[in-house]
């Protein structure tokens, strides 16, 4: 694990943008999987002007790592958020965007492998220790991709939010098995609210109750935080 | 996971020898970690004449992945077994053998990394699901290398054997974190006695009660069995 | 460069078979490019029984590295030779065989890249220093793949043979640029007749007059010879 | 080859800084070889504040790729220039700086290999097509590292400059063989004065008269230019 504790959210974002742009600058087809949410907002703000209409980034392809279908909507929550935050403002070509859905999630890991594998995945971490949609209580470390149906109530705080607020009865996600195959795994976290869970997930034992704890096993794993989120973490 | 179910112990051994020799045939310094025990006996029998006094394999280095110190003996159980089964008959130069001991185990993973990392590790699996010395009840997935002291009795079948029969009060082992960094992980298993545990470890969920189950996460993992050991395994 | 000087043609072939089988034993899709001709005859003899009808090698794909179209024949010389020597007796599925032809050669390098790149290429060397169809007098090191039309006579010994004996007026080949992208490049040579050219190609300066001399630049290059072919080569 | 034609020197420098910082952000020991000269001045300006006293970059090591000893000076031209432009202002620890000299150049490639190889090399190109100190008339593509003694006059424009102005009678450099082993090779060029040579070196045939032309063979080669330097280059 490579710890990069920066001072500010701005610095955290800048360090992450560097890594994203560098992977994009390779000769080969580059496959990225990036996260939606609040943590990366500044990252995409910085990234968009550097990527938009740059023909030398035309060989960069994007894959989402989870999806939450919403009743009556064609596009799920994750892709909607990525479209708004990055794909549309950066004018990424549809042919370079490869959505995982509740239909194709089982074949998705092989599709990624056949395209040369993921060069980089950018993820966040939830205050409950989840990564992608690997949630406490439903995580399946050994699966490359799986679907969770919310038919049977799970005794976890996130259940209500996902089931009710997000108005869905299932979600799909890549599992730890797929993340272990990513060449460079980057986790970003900012703010005091992430300090305690980062310590538990990255400096503690591996347990499905803290799904992100499994990521300690990744052979090329970079963690980038601001001062607050990194406050309780060992330097190495 | 790459499943190679061969018909016989002979074929399993031959398929493994091919992989070992191939890694040895690279231009770079090659770092291997190989297992002692019964399963690989035929492998070393086949390997020795191909390796002995071959100057073109002088760049191959060896690391043990665990060690059990024995009271009143300078060399531990693992290294003793490897010396007898392979290092001595193959005339491997002492400078190419890098022992992990109860003294240096904490620094060993970094020593391996500084030497370019392990290209291949050959392991077996115990009927109780252990790999290297990652035992049910004492496994620590998140550690690169760790030591288990047998001061406090562990409620596991293996405890008596290790403590009494092996006449030791501790052992050291590389952990799952180190194995995830090996470029090619190869597990061999033969005989009916391994069929059920292989099924549980490789086709079931990941759990510390079956330490080898974590190996499903390895990105380049080859499992080679004879017909009996592979009988209950999925083909992929 | 990794030099493996074995004693006999038999040993050279066996060492090469080991490397081929090992690459085939990886988890990922495996892409190989193999040579026709006399040197590998024993290799394919040994390989066929180990590969034929083995479901665990179904993920292995094959690409030819050159082709010589023959008037009035649907299949060129290279693919015809490979079909006879290996693909047919080993019962390789047509879907796993990817022929380069005079039609598709320009797109072929990208097709290979999109499939994950070549894991291993097995080549021989001509007494005139040619590799694949990179011939003295017409070599283009900087091309990934190119076509040579035999309209203008080339002042090289090979010209008559190719033009007349092979009854063709052109050929296509992968160039040095493509070979530099192969993860593991293996060159085999046996017999006294190859000793002098091997010395010039591998221990001398790089020159288009000895096309194979460029291969010295490959970062993971293994040369396997019998005693006669390796007689004049440095050990490293 | 990956072409990144940016609009300005500022943009070229920023794109290069991204790549440098990204490689530095890996978990493993990172080995870099960077260039002195005018082109990278802005790069180091941008890089210094991001690297200075950052403990998370302590695992980054530096190697020079050539050296020109100067009579009566302990440190050669290249290391002096790198010290002034980057190592000193960035407060890089001496233990992380590994100088190649006229004494150790023969052992230097192996020293680099034993340290895990170079992750990235940043180079420029001369108006005469030289890279590192691989000069027209004295280039040796097949050498990993070599020394040129200026005892016998070479009929090349650079001879006078090196011999007289630089007040030296020899220089050492890594050769193309070493560069082919670098995981990511990055060439920067800015200004009209580089446009013509870039075209010849990167879009023309490979010839020792234009040493940099050999770099077309590198499997992961990124070229970053400003608008002027890239004006005559193909986009791919």
From TrEMBL, chains A, B, C, D:
Classification via InterPro entries: Glc/Gal-6P_isomerase, GlcN6P_deaminase-like, Glucosamine6P_isomerase, Glucosamine6P_isomerase_CS, NagB/RpiA_transferase-like
UniProt keyword terms in alphabetical order: Carbohydrate metabolism, Isomerase
PROSITE patterns documented for this protein: GLC_GALNAC_ISOMERASE
SUPFAM superfamilies: NagB/RpiA/CoA transferase-like
Domain Glucosamine/galactosamine-6-phosphate isomerase: 7-216
Signal sequence coordinates: none
Protein name per Swiss-Prot or TrEMBL: 6-phosphogluconolactonase/Glucosamine-6-phosphate isomerase/deaminase
